Amino acid sequence: MNKRIIIIASIFGILAVVLGAFGAHGLKTIISEAQLNTWETAVQYQFYHTLALLFLATFSRFKSRAINAASWFFTFGILLFSGSLYLLSLKDYLNITDTAVLGPVTPIGGVFFILGWVSLLVATVKNK
Questions:
Q1: How far apart are CA 2 and CA 78, in angstroms?
Q2: What is this structure's pTM?
Q3: Own/partner long-range contacts of 110-115 (Cβ < 8 Å, ≥24 apart)
Q4: Domain that holds residue 25
């Protein structure tokens, strides 16, 4: 097991539960229905890729560069994709008027997710 990956996944898992509960209970009266849906999407993708990180941790015995790359791609994907969606959900509440920077960050995070899955595929194909 890869301790670094498990620690990162644990932190993201904790945050996903906290942020999911906060969205379900604390944001209902503060943000719009559409913004709440965006928040829920961020939580879902954070959870999916937290589980993917935990899965990657089981491959640590292979010392694969592709597995290591996948873990970093998933980590940055969560930070960029989910992080930008959390901020976009709260833009009105936080008085963020210029979302020109946040808009492109979300798909960049999505590209990191894709690269993480591609890296996992490469690691699997290369494994003997």
A1: 19
A2: 0.93
A3: 110/77, 110/81, 111/77, 112/73, 112/74, 112/76, 112/77, 112/80, 112/81, 113/45, 113/49, 113/73, 113/74, 113/77, 113/81, 115/69, 115/70, 115/73, 115/77
A4: 3-126
Lowest mean pLDDT among 23-27, 28-32, 58-62: 58-62
Give me the amino acid identity at 100: A
User: Tokens in use for 63?
Assistant: 């010392």
Q: Per-residue DSSP letters for 26-85?
A: ISTTTS-HHHHHHHHHHHHHHHHHHHHHHHHHTTGGG--HHHHHHHHHHHHHIIIIIHHH
Count: domains in the chain:
1
